[in-house]
Amino acid sequence: MYNAPVFRILDLQNPGAIIHWFRKFGLMWPTKLTIIWVMFSGMVDDANAKIEELTEAVQALQQLVQEAGKHYDELEARRADEEQKHLEVLGAKDQCIAALKNELKDANNLINAIKQGES
User: How many CB atoms lie within 10 A of CB 33?
Assistant: First the structure.
């Protein structure tokens, strides 16, 4: 009866346009039901395609989150290692400073003892 180009003219998203189209062409109920079935089966196919697309997008995002989590764990371990090394360096410097203070104190005591011995 009606070929595919008619469906391109029909706005499938607008129910008012569909009813107007039925009235304009005086279609019979079996023809109307066939057209409605074709429209809705196309919509179902579109919906299934969108579901598949969104499912793939969610899976891709989940994979990205897992990779980011692994990368974060690696960075956190590296940061903790660097912090430990930094604390060790600070401890060594503190020991060096304490040793130098003691040496300076001993040197001052020696100078004071020499000054007292000369007087």
Answer: 11
> pLDDT tens-digit profile of 17-38?
666 766 666 656 556 666 666 6
What's the residue count for the chain?
119
CB 32 within 8 A of CB 22: yes
Instruction: State the residue for tokens 């196309």.
Output: 42
CA atoms within 13 A on the CB side of 33: 3
The ranges assigned to domains in the chain are: 4-118
Query: How far is it, in rounded angstroms, from Cα 34 to Cα 2?
Result: 11
Which of 1-5, 9-13, 18-22, 104-108 shows the lowest per-residue confidence on average (mean pLDDT)?
1-5
Rounded distance, CA 56 to CA 50, Å? 10
